[in-house]
Amino acid sequence: MSEETYRYREERKQAEKTRQQQQRSNKSPKQRTLLKKVLLGCLILGVVSFGIVGVTFAAMITDAPKLDSSKLVDPLPTKFYDKDGNFLYEYGKQNRTKITYAQVPKMLEHAFIATEDTHFYEHHGVDIKGTFRAIFENVTGHFGSQGGSTITQQVIKNSFLTPQKTIKRKVQEWDLAYKLEQKYSKHDILMMYLNKIYLGDGAYGVAAAAKNYYGIDANNLNKLTLPEVAMLAGLPQGPSNYDPTKPEHKKAATDRRNLVLSSMYKRGYITEKQMRDAMKAPVTAGLVPKSNQQGIPYEGFLNAAVKEVEARLKNIDISTDGLSIYTTLDPKAQDYADRIMNSNTIISYPNANFQGAFVFLDTKTGEVRAIGSGRNDYQASFLGNNFAIDIKRQPGSTFKPIFDYGPAIENLKWSTAHQINDQETTYSNGQAISNWDHQYHGMLSIRTALQWSYNIPALLTLREVGLGNAKSFAEQLGSSFNHNNIYESYAIGSNTVNPLEMAGAYSAFGNNGVYNKPHFVQKVVFSDGEVVNFTPKPKRVMRDYTAYMVTDMLRTVVKSGTGTTANVPGLDVAAKTGTTNFDDKTSAQFGYPSNATNDSWLVGYTPQYTMAVWTGYPKSGPGNYMLGNTTKISQLIFKVMMQSFGTDGSSFQQPSDVYRMNNELYIEGGNP
Question: Which residue, 280, 302, 317, sits at the end of a domain?
Fold first, then answer.
């Protein structure tokens, strides 16, 4: 570059700078005054906003709990009570092993820090970056979707605060976390966490968990392998969902463990080779036989109650949060239910593999009084699977009042004498449909069609009602569908349900058309006295004439139809049977006879109680089918339970807008 060119460019830059200065100086005094006012206003607004935020935060922490050292040491157990408020059981005191920081292997410490709080040794109780990241997630989603909680915050949350996600509780958590870090060392706080955290299988703290899962005691934690350490560190986010001892959770447990290993690698705690080698190990490697918990009464029922609480109250830990859970349990009814399921003294079962499940609830309130959660090895454990609420089986003809005849009366005002032509019919896709007796019965009433559980009239009724109306009616009764496609075959119960869902739906027929969501919990009381009411609000889901007319047809089923075995003298019983068959492929594979039954249901009610019973085998296999009287076991279970606890001999009351003629029911102004 020549000297002349350089000088030219410098002169041009200086000229431009001079021009800009002149432009600024040429601004009128009025413009400069306005700019100053804007800047001053922004400054004042910022100061005021900061002050408001400060005052608001100060108000939120004024009633925050104090740091109580005793709460930092021992988790608070959860207490269960029955329907009358009588104490049942205290969960959370057993199986604890306290250890010191010196007993914790570095690999175990690194696994938890990499998973739960990567900046644990760098922050002062609150990870600012993590918090802002969580705030961003919550702003773009729902408050509480991201917590950004450090290990210190988790100690505070589990020891002093309720798990409900509110801004006030979060601010209190931040304040107390900062105070905790001022009072205790990082190692102290880490041990508060590692000694208290619930890791499933009844174990509280890493030492108890190491013993339960891998048979390694507190003095030998250094014998834990890298895959084992990673598995333990992955459990706090969902102990029951990631339990490696349960075959149904094997994949989820493996994925969770591998995520921990990946986090450890990213933080530099392990090498890539260590990570990959550890990921190759089966998640079941090193596990010792699981010991059954002893002394927990009514395990199946409390299992259902815990699942209900955990579904309603997010981020709670029943082993440490000091809850008082008031259930709907009737101990006498549950004792009898357990005897029904696990002995042959009341019901004679064909073999030990034969299974059953039921829900027994109050017709008027939806409060569950007792359940059958499975037989023998399939009976629900405290935190395991539960047939009464978890199984998904086809309901067969028990779905007809919900999807066909109930919607027809509700929407079309049919009488119970409404005529249907039971003749050769196919589904809309051309697939054949037949009755269980492989015959056609010509013109018959919907009462008779339901009495003898014929399939073709049910399909024809559904077509008259329309799939949309049927779906809406069923959903109002608590039925859920896993997809948007609703099929005509649902008219005869080809969808899947569980006993809890069916009991809830039928109870609405017995309660004059008012639905109460079936529930196991009345209320939950937190350790600070806060009460959360679990009693659902009653909801009218159908007209009273619909409920009564369905009930009256179901009376006929019990008195002179397919459900006579379930009839209970002295009680006004309405019920429906339901059976399902195996598909051709399964029948051929295991050599089943052509009339083999897969599922057998009885769902019924009195003005006092409603009960849904399923029987069958958990999976197909040689000999796992029902024939003849075996299909009646569901009716027998219903009968003995109602006989033992049905004390209300009153009858269902006919609404004023319904009249009876020739033993059939009609709606004033309705269709014949």
Answer: 280
